[in-house]
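User: quick one - fold this with zinc ion bound?
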Amino acid sequence: MDCIICDNIADEVGSHLIPASLIKNCVGNRNSEESYNIDSKTANVDIYYGRGNLNNQSTKQKQNHYTRDNVLCKTCEKKLGDLESKFSKEFLNKFRIDKYNNNFTIYNSTTDYEIFEPKKLTNDEVLVYFYSIIYRFCKVYEIEDNDSYLETNDLLIIKKYLHGFLYKNCGNYKEPIQKFKLLINFNKYSDKSKFIATSNELKNPYTFYFCEAIVFLFTKKTDEKAEHLFGEILNTIEQKHTKIVVGPEEFYDSMSDIIARILANDFITNAVNIISDLNKKAYEENLIEFNDLFSKYNDGIDTSAMTKAFDELKRKYSS
Ligand SMILES: [Zn+2]
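Assistant: Sure. Structure tokens for the protein plus zinc ion:
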């Protein structure tokens, strides 16, 4: 395999698709949290329990599923690793702690989003950090699932920018990506995040859930509605400082609700199909039984109730 950034031999193993420091709250590093990483295509659910969670029967931490072998070369891996450490040190470890407020230019947008602009990270450093995650995530998705999510040509534009920045290329590697816009959203008020996901239902803008960070990518000219809502807080390559949205909390929560609903719908469709295969009953009939059980366990969108209902029906019809 060739390195997805520089086309040399991809000789690195255990490369992170998403930096561990960004997704640590979603993959079981914390003491009393639990989170669900849902593969809605197969109705598989990985449940990560923190060590302090009473449901954690195992003494072993679950493996982080977001690493791959032979996707990057050692040089690209090292360069990205250095950048990720810097972002972690200057942003992830500091933006929720008041005593570091001087490291940021802090203000509210006219639409009342709370903005942090890191002073110790350049615009390119922040944007390369996020574009490289988007790129790795999409390329691996393309290799493994034959579905690139982003258009192939847009991935090439991102690749050119990443390579140009990491290897200090001459020539104008920034030109094609100048039209892209990125919205970067964190939640300053809580570190409880649940989702590492994206969905084909979310393409305008492309929306990525990388645990702590929710990222919108506009690859085409933004329309009036998007400009009105987000115009002021979108990031481009040409600007001097990066605007990172850190509040209000409701914005982050409403974005999280969108993916929760999509994943729940996908999950239920696939789960009911699996049950229909087991018991040969009609989909509609099984859906009713599933929903009865689901509402018995919970009346909201709750992945734990979903999996309980699915497991119970699987057991019932497998025997
Ligand atoms: Zn490389």
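One thing worth noting: The first strand starts at residue 15 and ends at 16.
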